[in-house]
Structures
1.
Amino acid sequence: MIGNIDNLLNLANDIFQKKELKPVFTQVGTIARYLWDRGWAERNAGNFSINVTGFFSDRELDHLSSYPFFPLSKQYPGLVRTLFLLSGTGTRMRDVVENPTEHICFVYISDSGSAYHIISENQGNTAVKPSSELATHLAIQQQLLQKKSTEKVVLHAHITELIALTQLSPFTTEAAVNSLLWGMHPETLLFLPDGVGYIPYILPGTENIAMATVRGFEKHKVVLWEKHGCMAVGKSLSEAFDNLDILAKSARIYFQCKSTGMEPEGLSNSQLKEIRDNLA
Ligand code: 2HA
Ligand code: ZN
């Protein structure tokens, strides 16, 4: 059943005006500003998804399945009747800062798990379509739900410092990159004791990168995409951002030490062990 355009406009209006979502929109604007200010979201780089199903009643969700619908290239049985806020494809983070709701859309996964309905603030030609990394966002969101995780957010950004590390052959393995990042600052190990996952280069926007990224998230809260960027999860957009920010700090310390012409010492194994023992 496809709803008529007036109903669709009313529905979009109800969702975008929902008062419980206002703080979410505010946080979207704040984090977009941080990403833009740090140079981690050039042009249309970066994207995010937030599972907002819990903000809506079953009745409200029922209405969502009548609107513009698109087939998915695979089925997501774990996402049936879930609703996500997603950044729009082609969206510039610097524009998201100015007006978050104009550059996001809501994606509702159908009862079959193999199609999605889009609800955007504007309809027709100006309707916002979801991020080009939709496949990866849906795959990770499904994994989070299957793990019964409290994490609801997936954030992708082009963290310059971390991309630069993945361009240096000594750091192109999970073990090597984690050893470097942990060694540069005690809080990296403190907040990310499981380290990062490392995915050798794969074409962005594909099912292949989505599948590899899901494997990376089995054990980590952040996954590096070689020569491209990073994906992070968090309970909020702010927490996902923090997970990337901590890692960027470590990478920056490394490059600043190198710019003196000297090698950084890194935290010793006994110092790292002390931090780990203290975590337990
Ligand atoms: O959103 O960063 O990887 C644009 C991208 C694609
Ligand atoms: Zn990207």
2.
Amino acid sequence: MDKYIESVYNRVVEKDPHQKIFHQALIEVLESLEPAIKKYPQYKEYAILERITEPERVIKFRVPWVDKDGKIQVNRGFRIQFNSALGPYKGGLRFHPTVTEDILKFLGFEQIFKNSLTTLPMGGGKGGSDFDPKGKTDAEVESFCESLMFELYRHIGQFTDVPAGDIGVGGREIGYLYGAYRKISNYHGTGVLTGKGAGWGGSLIRPEATGYGCVYFVNEMLKTRNEDIKGKVVVVSGSGNVAQYAVEKCIDLGAKVIAMSDSTGWIHDPAGIDREKLAWILELKNERRGRIREYADQFKVDYTVTAKGTPWSLKCDIALPCATQNEVDAKEAKMLVDNGVMAVGEGANMPTVPEGIEIFLENNILFAPGKAANAGGVSVSGLEMAQNSQRYFWTREEVDAKLHQIMQAIHANAYKTSELFGKKGNYMVGANIAGFLKVADAMIAQGHRV
Ligand code: NDP
Ligand code: 2IT
């Protein structure tokens, strides 16, 4: 590794030695920036890497709330305001028991480059809590969201920081958060959160955007090899927001999805998940908040618990990991390659371990890194902000067309940049460098204090 890049990496590790997931995200980006740092010495001169790896602000706070038995519970809330060179901090909130400052720094760091790629004016941030919404009543979730907002409200705003959803935060949570924000501030600031309901300032297609965008990106990659997603066999992990709409778009474009999962296990439906079965899954997951195992009982297909393997053992043309970080290990990447996978599109953030990415790249698999492939979600969040600013809304068709256009632009930019820096077709290098250049140039232009 380049000495300068190594010194930046070591400095971060020495300061926060326990933030392993953040270090993983960092090394992936830093290593691929090497040709850009060599070509443009000004980035070293202006200490861009030293600055960009340090969040502008980390907010950490107590969130007390009342459970269904009237007992007071305490969780921890966070907001990492990582970089605002391109616009207000923008990024989701994650509610999951594994949430720590480490996880949110990884996600916030990735978000800087992802948001830069979208072409829209958004900085990077991320937040959330170790609160576990699973098994909680609506009233408990409401109590928690309200308490979180009692602190968060003073740090956010349409020109400051605009949170949205991520794991464990969907339409229900955004509703409670937005209600609390309005009540506290006496301000109908629709641009303060995205992922709102379509009737009160939300954008059409925002729920679908990440999944749809991921499939649009994969299809663009396939085109470079004169292929098309139509007729392809697809394996999807997860069964939450991103997975659900990735499956829907696959069905729309004529592909066959044979598997989905949750953290306890996965189903294998060789006949393919059709529209009717997908509607059943949406009701199961979004209304009844049940487990994917119930699909196996309902449609008489195989179900395997996670402890006994993952859907990556299935033969498929396309793999879409849409659950969480590090869910595809090196062994599983090898299995996918051996079984003939053609393309991998990361709907989730950093779902493939570094050795897994190496295996895909060595084998010339079309590999779309999360910060490019899943940028459709935050892109439509940006479009939601644009609509809010206009006090207006666009039709489904208009938003979907803009989303499609943005995903094509991200693909073209990542591809062109990979070629420019001598790694043609390596979308990881292309996306990292393309995302970085815009932010780095903005930081230089705005002076050494940003
Ligand atoms: P959801 O909460 O809607 O769904 C998450 C899914 O992943 C569930 O099926 C969940 O299973 C599974 N999952 C979560 N944690 C784990 C784990 N530790 N091990 C195995 N499975 C797990 O979240 P989203 O669909 O919104 O997010 C999925 C991924 O996509 C995340 O990486 C997120 O950062 C990323 N993303 C999301 C965007 C969005 O707009 N929502 C935008 C861009 C990226 P279970 O129910 O059992 O927990
Ligand atoms: O990881 C992500 O890009 C998101 N969770 C969506 C962020 C957003 O602001 O819409």
3.
Amino acid sequence: MTELIPKPRGVVATTGEVRLAAHSRLHARTGTQGVGHWLSTALRQATGLPLREGRELDDAGDGIVLQLDPGLGPEEYRLVSDWNGVLIEGGSAAGVFWGAQTLRQLLGPDAYRRAPIRRDRAWAVPYLTIEDAPRFRWRGLMLDVARHFMPKEGVLRSLDLMAAHKLNVFHFHLTDDQGWRIQIERHPRLTETGSWRARTKTGHGASPLWDEKPHGGYYTQDDIREIVAYAAERHITVVPEIDVPGHSQAAIAAYPELGNTDVIDTNALSVWDTWGINPNVLAPTDNTLRFYEGVFEEVLELFPSEFVHVGGDECPKDQWRRSATAQARIRELGLADEDELQSWFIGHFDSWLSARGRRLIGWDEILQGGLADGAAVSSWRGYAGGIAAARAGHDVVMCPEQQVYLDHRQDPGPDEPVPIGWVRTLEDVYRFEPVPPELTPEEARHVLGTQANVWTEVMEDHARVDYQTFPRLAAFAEVAWSALPAPAERDFADFERRMTAHYRRLDALGIAYRPPAGPLPWQRRPGVPGRPKDGPPPSR
Ligand code: ACM
């Protein structure tokens, strides 16, 4: 049962086990009561054990004690299982929480169920000591809820799955050309008009097909408050993304004056029903700035995160080149070109956010035309943007599309249901290294961490998201958390061995993961067909 994912720093096992039973107590000492509540709820529902509140260490005998140890780093924890019971100590409540996640793995896959399946079974934790701490402080997952709306229930489930993998930043991609998903009270049409589209492009390749079905939905501000609070209970920070000045057709469809009205008839635009890079970008006017300041004011009230993501990716400059208004703005500001105009636009929100005690983060295109002082970068077009930003003293989250875009296919075979992008296998993700060797140790300190991105153009619901995300998110979590050696030296066979146990956990959680080729490890017996062997790549 010590087949843990992500792999901890150190495990020393001895002989014996703590048995949780009806008399076992759970005692959460000062500063850990929130974790105690989470853990007792999770374990009570899975085990059916009462896990009554103990008061003192002795009182918890054969039970669980949670406490802070200020000598440990903020997310560091120590888990000791011995004749006294289970003791989890953390440098902060977050550290204790990650220790609680490890405890759940140690209890076996059924500890992930929501109701007990057998009342007579034993719940045992082997005697051991685990010392553990994360490699990175930003261990992220980005979910695109704009291309396909994911109802709130699925978002909460994603947060649970992140917690189970010790991931701690949920990057919430809330707006795009194809949908606006967050209620903004002062601009109601953003969701009234901007959250629905009439139809959606489906299929791949040369013959586009539209499904002719309306698609949409949004989160009310109360939904957002619930999501943020639910994440906080799991020591996950939600970083909202409002994508500007590109990826904004849904907003322009709702408020046509936000677009480049001297170039196109923005009244004729509707929420986009297809994919790709959209030419209809925001007009760089005072009206647009004031409008989005209003949006961000409401966003800041809802999201307490240090970082706020402003997108900045894939903003074609063609309309700005043709717009007399945009050109006048370039002259008035003494800028060299349209790239500098985008830089000015992003810089405006950098100062605006800094004045309110927050920090801006954007996709690596925000480097074009000069990066605002305090801004951080999500490096997605490979490592180059992240390297340039770190060298210039900016913080970076490494999420190169060639490695950790989980919408990309997992196999070249013809039965792969989402045949897009580069092939990124489980092993490819396991061998992803967030810190490029080009960086000096000083520069590498700017790599806050890493993030896997789940874009949902071809994922219409959570089952599809599961398939694309798992099992690769488990490999990603180990890259983000564990102190792994250089990619070529990583022991993928050991990871696969531990995955055998982890698939059982994912089964108990009800995740529609992509099965490995061939029979699953516990199906290797006659008469049980597995997934067909991966075949040759399809012709395009
Ligand atoms: C991106 O993939 N456009 C950030």
4.
Amino acid sequence: MKQVLNVEIKNYNITITDDDFSKTMEELNLLTASQKRLFIVSNKVFKLYFDKLGLNKEEVLVLPDGEKNKNFKNYIKILETAAQKGLTREDAIIAIGGGVIGDIAGFAASTYMRGIDYIQIPTTLLSMVDSSVGGKTAIDMKNAKNIVGTFYQPKAVLININFLKTLNKRQFKSGLGEILKYAFIEENCNYKQPLYLFEYLTLCCEKLFSQEPMTIMRVIEYCLNLKIAVVNEDEKESGLRKILNFGHTLGHALEVRGKYRMFTHGEAIVQGMFFVLNWAKKVELISYSYHRLAIELLNKYGFKEQKFKISELIEIMKKDKKAISDKIVFLIPCDKKKVKEVKFRPEEILEMF
Ligand code: GLY
């Protein structure tokens, strides 16, 4: 099976397939036929897939996984390797791994010689449904996630769902967290037709957990259709694209506070979703019945609400790049499958909770 989606703004394709890896590599070879290549590969993927992908060690730089490795040191390592291997403006960087690898490789590609091609081959569910598409590239600084980065679209995204067979359960569930996000923002996305993602996710939970290929492919396709519609309208996040940060304000703070070890990204942003759903119910932006359905959906996917001392997270949220002057920015549900941006001073948030 194969699906091809197109991102109009920079006219690049996203292929979603469950074909053999050899087909994905054939497609990559065609896309890069005349280019010198540098593959940035996560260490886990390198161990599991070096032979299956038929990689050439000469073209590969292996980097460790994990958010703490999305740093300046590894960014410079990529640039130095690209220079050593003599990559020019005509050449390409290929990221094979999860969001950390895709973000740092994309950032290096966007700055090396003022920008060369890069291709994303995401290997985690989270990177398949979100970070590999849309051109956000970044590295982190202490206590601030994605604080240095660019908007720089890839030349192509090649998604092969067979990578998910070796993804551990917790990371798979983390991807489900990001998928659930799209269910709450579908109405904002202005996609040309209703996808009924909220309803579909309510129905297909068991099939998704058992990794039924058709269901996985369809869910990735639905999420990306919504994301592409948003990115086509607002590539640089000056307006609409902010909705993709639903659940992320509190989520990022939890990730930072837990030093990226306590919560996966998906677990953290789902806690952020619980927080704003409860807030929206409290201030009567959403109905009790929608709130109940929303919480039931999150629970169905095995996510349970945890309680946090909001005061402990405020300082971190103030440093988030979504914060504007002295205000913290949240996306809060305001109707069924719809969210809106609200800005509050830290004291106002403390008064409310
Ligand atoms: N992950 C959110 C975005 O791409 O805008």
